[in-house]
Specification:
The chain is mostly beta strands and about 120 residues long. It has no helices and eleven strands. The N and C termini lie far apart (about 40 Å).
Amino acid sequence: VQLVESGGGSVQPGGSLTLACIGSGFKFGDYALSWYRQADGKKRELVVVISGGGGTLRYEDFAKERFTAFRDNTKNTMYLKMLNLKPEDTARYFCRRHKTTYSNSPGTDLWGEGTMVSVAS
């Protein structure tokens, strides 16, 4: 059972990236998933939670205008599309599995190892 993130990289301010999180070893569509991020020296913070079916999303305020989460359960993959990236978006981005399909269910200890996003000119 694991989650593996990919798609990070270095971009200039104003650039875009789409991250991916692939799950394996469990029935992917049965679980809500979330994206978190952690910048150096800061606490890990929630970005967005998406329900098992993908129809319900809960974004943190900073992510509402520039970030879009979606999932393709036929590919066991969740995505995070990020537009107009800013230096303050520099962080390691993680995905996490929740306890049930509902977006308001608690997160579990199943995390990926993360993918690094660096935004600098």
